[in-house]
């Protein structure tokens, strides 16, 4: 195979002079363009800073270390009113990432299901999928999110008569209250041990494959770690009604549920169409070949059709994931404390630093989305058919 | 020669849009904002995007409210016509930036006058046109009588103000924890409060009264007696144009003085025609031309304000009185009636 590669390289060798001259010209033009762009950027920045100075406004991020003094109603890492604006940025960034991550996973699964249903031989499944897709993708997303929120808070009972669910969970208009696992004196160390053990599994599996030494440890280590974790659990903290609200345990607020529902359902309609189109794009002969080999419908889908369809799907899915991530900012409408609501809202107003907060929020969204694009590009390269 | 240089200096400053701060009083004092407004023939007035009492549009799209009345009064004083106002509805997020950038001439948007906004944002607080304080509204069925009993409660409110900060401070001061749920728009916040997502709603006292009026059954809700913060709502201008600030400040003072002296929209003409001997009344109604002109406007500016919008009490009654939101005058009454509204003397 290496020989073939070399052959291709040699075959492409001719006409280097012309190519080089062309590339030099292109390089010059690009350099000129880059230069103009830099000048333009400098002009914009200089102009903005002149105008800021003329209005006695200054630009700086010193406020990030100041004390905030306000409460963030939902946070996955500890938060108190004495924390800084910098910490607030981290807290609401995690809220944004949480909503985006759950939304992307749920939306992809649901979208895949809807897409496959669209191609089903079953009339009911086909039509139901079509109806859902058309309704969802033809109405504004913000409206859907507010709809889910209002429906949910209208339908759920007040905290004083919350619905008791199995496992000590309670569902009320205040959200889904779940018991939390309280670790004993060992703290989170046993959990870290479990994570480490799980990370070692591939290593031991590799050892088993090659040398058959230590192979027995592959399933054993995580099992031991799991026992350690279970033993070090001190107690479960069940939510109980005290005063106005439930105390203890952890709560999934209705805002998060409504936001994730709105985001993932909306994305799933578009994902469904991408899945349908990609599956239909695979030559009919592939399916026929699969069934002639005796593969079942599901086997044909997962082993033959899907691996090929993925190549077409992934670049388009990337767009959907980026859109969903940006749309988490719609959570501001329903009181979900994400980046835009807390940072471009409360923090902006309290510090008066409109430019800085907007700049930070934009940079962070850019960063998140570039990371998603980068990951998807890597994954795409991974599943793409290697052409030679 | 020096006076000519001063004039050139003033003109240069005015052209640069920097105002004429720091010039001696005897020189012709220029106001860049005033000149711009006159040239434009219209006042760009920044108001709330829509809140009962302060600034809202009626069914025909006409702007109404206490803050809107102030815009009209300023336009009447400066341009001679209360209708020559372009209302710019600004959100809490952009209000100060819009003012700093010069898109609006004055910001009258139920905004609290604070130290930070004065010093850090380089805005000029002019006057308090509404004394408010943050209040709570809860469902009567919760049987809560005081804000101190709200430990563990969740309160819905709007983001972009200092509400969440005040609540955290109040909780810390009283050893209780009140959870806040922050909404972008009042519609969703009201819906959440109505549905029981939170135990109550919090905003400035005037806005809470307005919020209660929009609930399905306003009588199901009670406003708690505690006022947990001082929210002197008022008028902001850009720093560095004192002359313009004077016009805004004295527009407010005229509205208060008119109420103090019993001059209303209806009886102003009659009093003016009766040639009052009281020098204060003469100054108020523009009968003492030399005095009135000291503001840099024509002699009749104060009379026009009263004719356009009435006195402060009339405006308050129209938008917050028993027939509107039913909010007692309280601290917004004149100082002579136990309130805080106190006009500087017209002399």
Descriptive overview:
The complex is a heterodimer of chains A (388) and B (347). Chain A has 388 residues and is of the alpha+beta class. Chain A has a domain at 85-150 and 253-383: MetI-like (MetI-like fold), CATH 1.10.3720. Chain A has helices at residues 2-11, 16-54, 85-118, 123-137, 141-155, 189-210, 217-232, 254-280, 284-292, 297-327, 339-351, 354-383; strands at residues 163-165, 169-172, 175-178, 180-183, 233-237, 240-242, 245-247, 250-252. A 4-stranded antiparallel sheet of chain A has the order 1-2-3-8. A two-stranded antiparallel ribbon of chain A has the order 4-5. Chain A has a two-stranded antiparallel sheet with strand order 6-7. In chain A, helix 3 (85-118) runs antiparallel to helix 4 (123-137), helix 4 (123-137) packs across helix 8 (254-280) and helix 5 packs across helix 8. The N and C termini of chain A lie close together (9 Å). Chain B is of the alpha/beta class. In chain B, helix 3 (66-79) crosses helix 9 (242-260) and helix 3 runs antiparallel to helix 13 (301-309).
Number of helices of chain A: 12
Total DSSP E strands of chain A: 8
User: Which structural category fits the helices and strands of chain B?
Assistant: alpha/beta
Determine and state the CATH class of the domain at 85-150 and 253-383 in chain A. Mainly Alpha
Q: Output the strand order for the largest sheet of chain A.
A: 1-2-3-8
Q: Name the largest protein-protein interface in this structure.
A: A-B, 40 and 47 residues
The end-to-end span of chain B amounts to: 34 Å
CATH architecture of the largest domain in chain B: 3-Layer(aba) Sandwich
Sheet of most strands of chain B: 5 strands, mixed
Number of domain units of chain B = 2
- Compute the average pLDDT of chain A: 85
The fraction of residues assigned to DSSP E strands of chain A is 5-15%
* Helix content class of chain A: 55-70%
Low-confidence stretches of chain B: 10-27
Radius of gyration of chain B: 22 Å
Shape of chain B: globular
Shape of chain A: globular
**CATH-wise, what's the superfamily of the domain at 85-150 and 253-383 in chain A?**
MetI-like
